[in-house]
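does this look right to u?? uridine 5'-triphosphate version
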Amino acid sequence: MKPIRKVVIPVAGYGTRVLPATKSIPKELLPLVDRPLIDYVVREALDAGIDHIVLVTGRGKGAIEDYFDHAFELETGLEAKGKIDILASVRKPILAAGSVSYTRQQAPLGLGHAVWCARDIVGDEPFAVSLPDVVIDAEPSALAQMVGEYEKTGGNIIAVEEVAQEETNKYGVVAPKGERTGRLFEMSGMVEKPEPAKAPSNLAITGRYILQPEIFELLEDTPRGAGGEIQLTDAMDALMKQQPFYAHEYEGVSHDCGSKLGWLQANVALGLKHPELGDSLAEFLRKNR
Ligand code: UTP
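got this back:
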C-alpha cells in the first residue's frame, strides 16, 4: 500500500460568506488567535507525517505563498533589535525547500475542479485533501487519526462528525453500509443537505479526505453540479461504486471558520486554550457577559 505523502489544500475560493473581510485578503489568511487559518491546516498535515503540501491558489492569493517564505527584511530587523522570541515565531513553519508546490485554479469552478488542478503534482498515488477554513482541534490531529486508519484499511476515507439530527439539512451527510461499529465504517453513499426525517445518519462530512488517484479521472468527467460548480462530492459518489470508501468519525472539535459566527467562536474557543492569552480572555469574557 502506498503511503500518504501529499496533501492538497485548495485556497482559490472567493470566501463570500466572510465578506467584506476577504475583499482584499485571502480567507485562508484570516487570523485565528495569533496565526492565519492556513497555518493550522499545514501544521496538521505535518503532524500526520505528510511531507509535501500542494496549494491550489488563484488570483489575489499571492500573500499565502509569502507566508511560507522567509521574510528577510522582517527577520533581519527583529534580529537587530534582539527580539529573538518573535523571530522564532515568524520563522516557523517555513516548509523545507521543495516541499511545497503551487498550482493555480484560474477560476473558482468548485472544490472538485480545485482538486483536479493538482492532478499532475499528486501523480499516481493516494493523497489527502484538507479544507483550510475547517479548523479541527484534536490531539492527535484529525488527519493523523485518518492516516492511522488508512494504514490499516487502504481505500478512501472521509472525516465525519456528529451533528444535531434537526440540522442535517445544513450538511453533506453519509450513509453507513450496514450496521455501524466503531469510529471507522464503510459507507454506501452521501446525501447533500437531507431533511432530518430522510437523513441516513447524523454524521456530516467535515473537510478532510484521503483519496485514491482514480478520483482525478472521475473529476475530469464530472459535469457542473449544485451551484454550477464541479463538486468533489459527485466524483466521490462515482468512486464509491468502484473502490472501498470509509467514513471516520474523528475525536476532536471542528470550527467552520468560513462563516462569520464559526470564525468568532473558533477565536474564543482556541483563545481560551492559548497558554499566554487564555486567562486574560476568560477574565474579559466574564466581565463582559
Ligand atoms: P468553500 O466553499 O468553503 O470556500 O471551499 P469559498 O468558495 O471560498 O467560500 P464561500 O462559500 O464563497 O464563502 C473550501 C475551500 O476550497 C477552496 C476555498 O478557497 C476554501 O479554502 N475552493 C473552493 C477553491 O480553491 N476553489 C473553488 O472553486 C472553491
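The chain has one domain: 6-287. idk if thats expected tbh
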